[in-house]
Design brief:
- By secondary structure, the protein is mainly beta.
- The chain has a domain of about 40 residues.
- About 10% of the residues lie in helices and about 20% in strands.
- The chain contains two helices and seven strands, in the order E-H-E-E-H-E-E-E-E.
- A three-stranded antiparallel sheet has the order 2-1-5, with no helix packed on it. It has a two-stranded antiparallel sheet with strand order 3-4.
- Strand 6 and strand 7 form a beta hairpin.
- The relative contact order is 0.28.
- It comes from Aegilops tauschii subsp. strangulata.
- InterPro entries: Galactose-bd-like_sf (IPR008979), PITH1-like (IPR045099), PITH_dom (IPR010400), PITH_dom_sf (IPR037047).
Amino acid sequence: APAPTAAAPAPAAAAAAVPSASVPRGQVDLVDFIDWTGVECLNQDPAHGIANALKQGYREDEGLHLASDSDEQLLIYIPFMQVIKLHSALFKGPEEEVQKGVVR
């Protein structure tokens, strides 16, 4: 199941607050800028919802994950509280389920 991490260029003070192992140097985790009232994930399993993949503390827990309730697709909408410059998004899932860069 995927665990997205979005990263964007950030000032040194913000980058220092994020562990260097999880986000590349010079970038910052955008979780603090997410507008949680507008986050949507279509096809999510209610027992394994989007918060498991996005919220700090949840996404680090190997026992929690995001899963679909119907097929191999998840449609995710993540609004932000301000304009951001998205550099990358990281999706982490079980090795056996990752094929050709697609998380299934």
